[in-house]
Every structure is written in structure tokens, then in C-alpha cells.
């Protein structure tokens, strides 16, 4: 996302979103298409390994959505009042990543592994 796909990801690093959707949301489509194709061909072949690869892509996408869009960026306010130190640290670490509006010089992404320095409240 910080390489050749920056065009789609750049608006995600802006402080405010003008619309409900952002260009960055195209990544859901980019990953959904191969997942759907793998589901189809895997089911046609008797639920072989292709189906389960598609399932893995779908599960990863759901987890990414829940962690990145819901928990970290709070596009949906489902976990707004959490007191969990890990989840608060996760949000802080990712906020540091967004401190840089460009694609260079980004710091810790804070997706699942959170350096201990972000646990301090």
C-alpha cells in the first residue's frame, strides 16, 4: 500500500475523509475478487484446497476490517470506549504510523504487534 498502490492508499493518510468511502476501500474489492473466484472453483471441484484458500483470504479480510477500520480508525463506533490496554496501545501505534501524510518515513503500523512503549497511558 505504500509502494505502487499508494495512489489508492494516499487519501487514507489524510486527517479527515470527505466521504463515507475512500479510495483505500478499493483494497476490499481487490482481495474479494480472487476470493470469490477461488470459492467458486473450489466448490465446483468438491470443496478442494482452492475453496479453503478463498476462505482464508475472506477471514483475513474480515479480521483486517475489524482491526484496522473498526477498532483502530473507528469508522464504526463499536469499540469506542474500550479500556483494554492492548487495544489502546494498538490505536496509539497506528496513529504514529499516520503521523506522516506521505508514503515515506512511516513508523510502526500497529496492526497486531504493538511495541511496549505504546502501552503507557
From TrEMBL:
Domain Fatty acid hydroxylase: 1-110
UniProt keyword annotation of Oxidoreductase present: yes
Alphabetically ordered keywords of this record: Carotenoid biosynthesis, Membrane, Oxidoreductase, Transmembrane, Transmembrane helix
GO molecular function, one term: beta-carotene 3-hydroxylase activity
Short name of one Pfam family: FA_hydroxylase
InterPro entries: BETA-OHASE-like, Fatty_acid_hydroxylase
TM helices/strands, residue ranges: 26-43, 49-67
GO biological process: one example: carotene metabolic process
Similarity section: Belongs to the sterol desaturase family.
Full protein name: Carotene hydroxylase
Amino acid at each position: 500500500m505504500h509502494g505502487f498502490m499508494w495512489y489508492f492508499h494516499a487519501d487514507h493518510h489524510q486527517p479527515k475523509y470527505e466521504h463515507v468511502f475512500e479510495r483505500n476501500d478499493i483494497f476490499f474489492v481487490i482481495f474479494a475478487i480472487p476470493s470469490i473466484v477461488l470459492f467458486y472453483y473450489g466448490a465446483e471441484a468438491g470443496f478442494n484446497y482452492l475453496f479453503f484458500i478463498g476462505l482464508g483470504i475472506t477471514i483475513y479480510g474480515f479480521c483486517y476490517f475489524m482491526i484496522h477500520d473498526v477498532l483502530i480508525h473507528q469508522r464504526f463506533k463499536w469499540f469506542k470506549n474500550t479500556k483494554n490496554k492492548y487495544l489502546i496501545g494498538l490505536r496509539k501505534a497506528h496513529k504514529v504510523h499516520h503521523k506522516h501524510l506521505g508514503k515515506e518515513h512511516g513508523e510502526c503500523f500497529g496492526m497486531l504487534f504493538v511495541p511496549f512503549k505504546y502501552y503507557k497511558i
